[in-house]
Amino acid sequence: MSADLQSRRTVIAGVGAGGLAMALAACGGDGGATSAAPQAQESSAAPSASASESASTGSGGGALTSAADVPVGGGTIFKEQKVVVTQPTAGQFKCFSAICTHKGCPVASVGDGTIDCPCHGSKFSIEDGSVKGGPATAPLAEVPIKVDGDAITLA
């Protein structure tokens, strides 16, 4: 292979890696609760340290959010815990992994009854995490939560 062809391949590979880094940076954030649609809202309650620990260890913990901070027909994404809490109908709360099953990107918004991944356009139901639009073919994993009064905690 000529040095010129090898050099071009190196440049193309570098540009591809740079584009990927920019896309991943765009998916990242401040680690808090986020939303990007009218039906989703940002939680004003900061998750407790025990909630963060429980998400990473898989055990129960402190309050994740309050029921009042999860909009009916929408949801709230918790980047740090990698979960999304939804309220499909008044008083019914669900929690799912916030990691898309297609390529592992974090979901970025909740709106119009779906949890949406910005990377390739996959959409998941706020009711059961099922795929509503591909390319994902597997549903979001449900994450157990407890609702005690107004407090929602990871179970």
From TrEMBL:
Cofactor(s) the record lists: [2Fe-2S] cluster
Domain Rieske: start-end pairs: 62-154
Function: Iron-sulfur subunit of the cytochrome bc1 complex, an essential component of the respiratory electron transport chain required for ATP synthesis. The bc1 complex catalyzes the oxidation of menaquinol and the reduction of cytochrome c in the respiratory chain. The bc1 complex operates through a Q-cycle mechanism that couples electron transfer to generation of the proton gradient that drives ATP synthesis.
Region described as Disordered: spans on this chain: 35-65
Keyword Ribonucleoprotein (UniProt): no
Classification lineage: Bacteria, Bacillati, Actinomycetota, Actinomycetes, Streptosporangiales
Organism: Nonomuraea mangrovi
Key word Transmembrane helix present: no
Name used for this protein in its record: Cytochrome bc1 complex Rieske iron-sulfur subunit
Biased composition (Low complexity): 35-57
